[in-house]
Amino acid sequence: MQGRKDFTPKMLYQVHLDTLVPADNFYRQLDAALDLHFIYKETRKYYGTEGQESIDPVVFFKIMLVGYLNNINSDRALLRYCANCLDVRLFLRYDIDEDLPWYSTISRTRQLYGEDVFLILFKKVLTLCVEKGMVRGKRQAVDSAFIKANASMDSLIEKDVIENDVEEYANEFNENSDEKIDLYNTKNDKAKKTITSKRKKHVEQHHAWKAKEYKDQPSNKNSRQVDEHGNLIRPKYLSNHTHESKTDSDARISVKPGKARQLNYFGQIAVDDAHHVITAACSDYADKRDSQCLENIIELTKENLIENEITLDEITADTGYSSGEALKYLDENNIDAYIPNFGQYIPQREGFIYNKEKDQYECQRGNLAILPCKGERTDSKGYTKKTYRSSESVCKNCPLRDQCCGKTTKFKKIDDSIHKPLYDKMHEKMQSPYAKRMSRIRSKTVEPVLGTLKNFLNMQRVNTRGIKQANKHVLMAALCYNLKKLMKFKRPKLNFNYQKVETELQKTQKSLETLLFRLMMLYTCAHQKQNFLFFAFP
């Protein structure tokens, strides 16, 4: 017989929320594993003693956890999700008929709390992972990823050129113009600052160049200029030196190969290779290089590990983290790192050998010229280099001058970084089989973690503004990743062959029994012999 379900809502229900959520529910287990009562002490300083009660700090952080664990970026969507899930309501301690906080309350509370509260929560979760045996500390893999800022390229406005930034604008001028200006012809920094007339001239040059290049292009989003096909024309010359976002002044223009330019933040993480637990996480400005962020992420990692009585042994990272300053920091702090040198590094100059004692290059062909060090200089990009130059009298009649120096130049010049000995040391280190193994370990350790953070834990885009808020965003995504690892982690079971163990125990027992019997016989014989000697020799 065919059935038909009729439904008539009751006026009153007698139901308990606790009975509707299974005992093995994820949020039940999470609530038991993570005690958040310490949050009250850490957030007390942000509240006064009068007025209405705010949202419970523990409830706020639980709502944040739910958002990141379920990859929900919008506060409105997050509160709707929490209201519709019985297990989440039980996790938040909100009954079925209770109204959850308003979405704007979540936004204001997130801005109210400082970065230190989020960092303490991250360390708390990391400590739980350490206690469960998930962090070894032997090897840390470091990597980064761009995080989309809560601002569009249309929010960019043009900066005013100020005298203190002339050097940066002059560099951009040199890259885009046939005319060249020189900011490095003075003896010292003090002299540079005193030549205000020269600086003003450079500002005028920059404005003139910019006006010429921008002649047929819109300068900001307010322009509705279109091309012949009806497409909106964007400004061509957009850089962090010339433009800033009026929506989020901390966001920076950045680009990845094959993708369009956008406003981003820079997320940095360090991952332990044992069970892929994130040991440190932070956010930085997107116009920085990876190498400029290396010191900060390593110091954070060391601090977090030391607090858990773990020593940092090795660091592995990709080529982006290679620079002279980064290698200098690693060398001064005795950090064992495996970082391939960047692409422009040249281990040996063809046809020349370097004499370390005399600090000079020596030609091995042609007229055997000597290239002594002529001093140090700083190029347009800010890199300090040592210049080695030969004598014109030696090179001008060399049969190899055209292919070595060029058709017009009568001397040979070689520029080396002042940190070349550190580059050479790292290059030699990376030739070992262990270093190549470290590169493979790095890729399989940190890259899957970054992919998970961006695709499943809400780190693709930040819904707040400012570098401090972006740092909170990265910390929350990282600690939620560790929480998921913590909840799924099970200690490896030891596979015992109980039959074999039982057999070995039986053999051991028999051996012990035999040994004991022999000891007793020896004791008896010795005792009888002693009595015999006693009676024989009174």
In DSSP terms (H or I, runs of 4 or more residues), the helix count works out at: 19
The shape, in one word, is flat
Q: Can you say what the CATH homologous superfamily of the largest domain is?
A: Ribonuclease H-like superfamily/Ribonuclease H
What fraction strand? 5-15%
What is the domain tally?
A: 5
What is the highest CATH level, the class of the largest domain?
Alpha Beta
What are the segments in which pLDDT stays under 50 over at least 5 consecutive residues? 176-181, 183-188, 190-195, 532-538
Largest sheet: 6 strands, mixed
Between the first and last Cα atoms, what is the distance in angstroms? 112 Å
Mean pLDDT: 84
The CATH architecture designation of the largest domain is 2-Layer Sandwich
- Assign the structural class, choosing from mainly alpha, mainly beta, alpha/beta, alpha+beta, or little secondary structure: alpha+beta
Helix content: 40-55%
DSSP E strands, number: 13
Q: Whole-number radius of gyration?
A: 34 Å
CATH third-tier fold name of the largest domain: Nucleotidyltransferase, domain 5
Task: Tell me what the structure shows.
The protein has 538 residues and is of the alpha+beta class. The chain folds into five domains: 17-113, no CATH class; 128-149 and 263-340 and 430-488, 2-Layer Sandwich (Nucleotidyltransferase, domain 5), CATH 3.30.420; 153-246, no CATH class; 352-419, no CATH class; 499-538. It is 45% helix and 13% strand. It has helices at residues 17-20, 26-33, 38-43, 57-69, 75-84, 86-92, 103-112, 115-131, 166-176, 189-194, 196-213, 290-307, 324-332, 392-395, 401-404, 420-429, 433-456, 467-488, 498-536, and strands spanning 139-148, 156-158, 243-245, 252-254, 262-272, 278-285, 314-316, 336-338, 352-355, 360-363, 370-378, 384-389, 413-417. β4 (252-254) and β5 (262-272) form a beta hairpin. The relative contact order is 0.11.
